[in-house]
Write a structure and sequence with these properties.
Blueprint lengths: L4 E3 L7 E2 L8 E2 L2 E2 L8 E2 L2 E3 L28 E3 L4 E7 L2 H4 L10 E8 L52 H6 L24 H15 L5 H23 L15 H11 L2 H4 L11 H4 L1 E3 L2 E3 L2 E3 L8 E3 L40 H23 L3 H4 L2 H12 L3 H9 L24 H11 L21
Antiparallel strand pairs: 1-7, 2-5, 3-4, 6-8, 8-9, 10-13, 11-12
């Protein structure tokens, strides 16, 4: 939209205060904390990247910010953006008592520009809109996408896991990642959880590097690049995605992918000038030595040079009971030394998130980035070595030690199943596994002619 202009009505109508009607005050949803400032179907002019949002007062865990709710009429000038949402009925969310409440069903963005733009223009980012260039789809570096033959699956229903059209529909609407922990993620637009984001974008970018035609790839390509533009805007606005369980995966790769496709130096190096910007995949992977409980460790307990850094590494030394909660770098010590609850039960935080919610969701995006030789842009080799470790290391030593320490007995779980290394999560898991088997040690030639090390070697 070319401005300036004034928005006088929005459908559905934004609701504020008494107009909201029945509210919820239970679990992580605390609407009694906002007397006279409750909200539904909210809009925000020029959203912030501070981890909070003003669309709906049911956004949990104090991530609702009533000051960001825009009251009609809304004046807009060139460089402004307006995000408008549709709230879900109370009946759909009131049974949730924990943090993972999803109060929004839809979101859309209106950008105000100084002059008309070509029909193939990408929308500016919804955060820090005034500093978001107008990119054109005609300039996408489609030549950087591979055209690798799709490996055939023994089960045709898994070949591939879905059509390109299915994946494209998943990225057509705005991915509103404005509130911390995904608490403002609209259910009909995007995944709430970082692991699912990483899986979906990993599978999608793998498909973009196979032998579909350029015309078939285009809607999916455009959708993912738009997500990267938006996430980079969030980063410019101050948003960060540090490791926390499995919630923040999947943000770095779409930014870098968009940077590659648009040849944009800022997106290709998003951390430049932003020392507080963090990405979960990098936080949770590191080469030894690492210091844990005052002791330096060169390798993991299983002997790997690359180490899983735990539930929330950035809180080491900050959260008083970080180790006791099981959030520490337990990868370097034997299971007999892992923290236990006072009743003797298992504290599965770092171990559980490593085996269920992070590692198995990273495989697709790591392989896609390797196919495109984007490792230098990623600029954290430990991430790629860790995924190689996950897919190739024999975990029997750790599993036997866990059994002896009266932890979970994974010795009877088959390889490739949840809880064992080599497991891949997501609806396209079998296909991603086949792509890994086919291409990880047979990558396309690098532009500079270098040979990539084998997956079995990088982590040793």
């Amino acid at each position: 939209m070319v401005g300036p202009t004034t928005i006088t009505a929005i459908d559905p109508k934004p609701l504020w205060g008494d107009a909201v009607g029945a509210t919820i005050h239970q679990g992580a949803v605390r609407e009694n904390n906002y007397p006279g400032k409750t909200a539904r179907n909210g809009s925000t002019r020029n959203p912030l990247g501070n981890g909070k949002a003003g669309y709906d007062s049911r956004i949990p865990s104090e991530r609702y910010d009533s000051s960001q709710f825009a009251h009609l009429p809304i004046n807009m000038a060139p460089g402004d953006s307006l995000v408008s949402t549709i709230s879900r009925p109370n009946e759909l969310i009131k049974h949730f008592s924990g943090d993972h409440v999803d109060p929004l069903s839809n979101a859309s963005v209106l950008a105000c520009l100084e002059k008309p733009v070509p029909t193939d223009a990408f929308r500016p980012s919804y955060v820090d809109t005034k500093n978001s260039p107008v990119y054109l789809a005609r300039n996408l570096r489609r030549d950087l996408l591979r055209k690798l033959p799709r490996p055939k699956m023994s089960n045709p229903k898994l070949d591939p896991p879905a059509t390109l059209e299915d994946y494209a529909r998943g990225v057509q609407r705005v991915w509103l990642d404005q509130a911390e922990m995904g608490f403002a993620a609209p259910t009909e637009n995007m995944p709430h959880y970082g692991q699912i984001m990483a899986q979906q974008l990993g599978e999608a970018t793998l498909l973009l590097n196979t032998d579909y035609s350029a015309e078939e790839k285009e809607p999916l390509l455009v959708g993912i690049v738009q997500i990267g533009i938006d996430f980079y805007g969030l980063a410019r606005g101050g948003m960060t995605w540090p490791a926390h369980g499995g919630i923040y995966s999947g943000r770095k790769w779409p930014i870098l992918f968009a940077g590659l496709m648009l040849d944009d130096e800022g997106m290709k190096s998003p951390k430049t000038g932003r020392p507080k910007l963090r990405f979960q995949e990098d936080d949770q992977t590191e080469f030894g030595p690492v210091t844990v409980q005052g002791k330096a460790y060169e390798r993991s307990f299983s002997g790997s040079r690359v180490i899983f850094m735990g539930h929330s590494p950035y809180r080491i030394g900050v959260l008083e009971n970080h180790w006791e909660k099981g959030w520490g770098v337990i990868d370097v010590v034997p299971p007999s030394e892992w923290p236990k609850r006072p009743d003797g039960g298992d504290v599965l935080a770092s171990f559980g998130y490593r085996r269920a919610n992070t590692s198995p969701g990273w495989v697709g995006q790591a392989l896609a980035a390797r196919m495109m030789h984007a490792e230098p842009l990623w600029n954290h080799d430990a991430f790629f070595a860790y995924v190689d470790r996950w897919m190739t290391e024999d975990d029997s030593k750790q599993n036997e030690a866990m059994k002896e320490a009266s932890w979970r007995d994974y010795t009877k779980v088959k390889l490739g199943r949840m809880g064992r290394q080599g497991y891949i999560s997501g609806p396209g898991a079998a296909w991603v596994g086949k792509m890994w088997e086919t291409y990880r040690n047979n990558l396309p030639p690098a532009p500079d002619g270098h040979k990539d090390p084998k997956a079995e070697d990088t982590w040793k």
